[in-house]
Design a protein that fits this description.
Helix content is 61%, strand content 0%. It is mainly alpha-helical.
Length: 98
């Protein structure tokens, strides 16, 4: 049995239109999580340290990083502030407006 890469498995799974639709809906959530984790690591701040900075528990930070909760904009603002970052949210039309 040939070992397949993550990319190969992902491409195969995303051929299913229903899976692709759900994947596209979750993409913005996971994009911000990836950006945040990268910045937290770059700043060399642990989950526990970040939790103290924003007034929560380490387990809550873990749930955010694993995508197990719908993080509010207010919480993202606290995280951004603790990481000395700006939070930017925008709506981009899928088609150009005429």
């Amino acid at each position: 049995m040939k070992n397949r890469s993550y990319g190969e498995i992902k491409a195969e799974i995303l051929k299913d239109p229903e899976v692709l639709k759900e994947y596209d809906l979750l993409k913005p959530q996971y994009d911000i999580i990836r950006q945040y984790v990268a910045l937290r690591n770059k700043r060399k701040i642990s989950q526990s340290e970040l939790a103290i900075l924003i007034g929560t528990k380490q387990t809550a930070i873990s749930r955010i990083e694993n995508g197990y909760c719908n993080t509010t904009i207010a919480t993202w603002q606290k995280i951004a502030s603790a990481l000395d970052a700006d939070l930017t949210i925008s709506l981009v039309p899928k088609e150009s407006l005429k």
